[in-house]
Amino acid sequence: MSDLCDELRALWLPGIHKVVGHQDRGIVGLIAAQNYQIYRPATSQSVELTFSTWDDVPRAFAADCARMSNAALETIEGVSGSPAFPKSAAWLIVRAYYAGFFAAHSIMRMLGRSLTQLDGSAAGAVDAISSMFGMLPGGGLERGLYVCVADHAGRTLTLSKVTGDGPHEALWIEFTRQVKDAITHILSQRGASSPAQSAAAKLMEVQAALTGGGATLKGNWLSVIRNRVNYQQAFGTWFPYDGRQEYYDGLIERLATWRGEPDKLSIWPTRDREIQQFVETCALLVAICRELSLDMSRRCPSGKSFHEYASVSLMRRLGLPVSAPIAA
What residue ranges do the domains of the chain occupy? Predict the structure, then answer.
């Protein structure tokens, strides 16, 4: 495993590596099941759920994590050029974006944070429990997109509604925040080792890419570039390819680096190669997701990890090396 993977292991959502078997009830299902208590006053846009049975929480995160990691691998695999349109790069970029998007969702869940759309069943369940404990806000909990943060020490799941941002921008804001938190955690350890510093440096590279070198502090640079390609047909990626750069010919090979070890991947930092930086960032996110999934699967103390029924299964289909489980 890479230095990055070794350092992020300490930040896994407690208990998620112990989850075995196929999981199909995600965070929305967990909330809808009403197996929690509410001891603090709720508002229309936030609530804290307390779980007496903590294992339900990592199982729900695992279910959603598995869906997202599957989507990341399936999206990035098989990206190829067209003999009829050899200069086309638009759909390569769009697929690269979504692979990185799904990978970021999966990584977040492995580390105990989720961006989740709460439907009527989930919001209604929260209202029912809030009412039971005398904590129901006027009008109840609003439906919508929520940041869900799990706290093993407090046995809580805190839900905070996203306001003013769409699902893509919100994802990158939260993911960038989590990357920053991971960097702080790694470097705050007494006598941070050389491998730890290397891991932090790699995350700083990711952070710099997500913020476009400071151009967008929210961390949604990938979304900005994807939108320019998708809606403005920018960067010469669509016919008639005005402004196309020669280095685009190597984009498929750079995207294929997602199969490699994250520590050995790098992101081109200069602005005159924005599309290369974009593709390399997406590939690195998928590589991190792939390696974290594999490491977590190997360290499952008993039974078959939930990853064995998801991303690890896809890795085997792709002929990627998947070694035997190791001690937790």
Answer: 3-299
